[in-house]
Design brief:
By secondary structure, the protein is of the alpha+beta class. The protein has two domains: about 90 residues, no CATH class; about 60 residues, Winged helix-like DNA-binding domain superfamily/Winged helix DNA-binding domain (Arc Repressor Mutant, subunit A, Orthogonal Bundle), CATH 1.10.10. Helices cover about 30% and strands about 15% of the residues. The chain starts with 13 loop residues before the first strand and ends with a strand.
Length: about 180
Amino acid sequence: MIHRDYGVIGSEVHIDIYDDRLEVYSPGGMYDGTFVQDVDPYNVCSVRRNPVIADVFSRMNLMERRGSGLRKIIESYEFEEKYKEKLKPEFRSTEVSFHTNLMNLNYDGQNDGQNDGQKLQPEQRRTEIIRVIEANPKATALELSKLLLVSKSTIERDLAKLRDEGHIEYEGSAKTGEWKLNK
């Protein structure tokens, strides 16, 4: 909120969470035009793009007034027992964006591929879709695809088949509607 460039129209801060890392994207590069990957993150000068927002956050004790954020992130990682140099936080910027990668220090990779070869057969998947809809009538095709590890189009075909067979119905608008089970 404090560092993003609100002049970049049609973009917003993105936070993507994966098993092994957290990625943050913010519109707006370094305010002075430099690239963070070309400077020492322990000595980045603080230039406030949004001084009013920074002042409010400072007064609420949610940030310090001096530019110590990158250094604090790195030092908090180095302090952790499971820290290794390869897990060091990564910062990079362009003229119009700032990216931060924070590695999960507790990730050991043991669960990688645990679902490989274990995707459900179509009938099993449709049964699972019905079970999910029963628990969450507002479930979306995208949510179902992530949950069941198949593409959104596969879920849409499954939903169409379940509708055609009379197992489910969708009531209401695309935004506010929900699924209804026919028993």
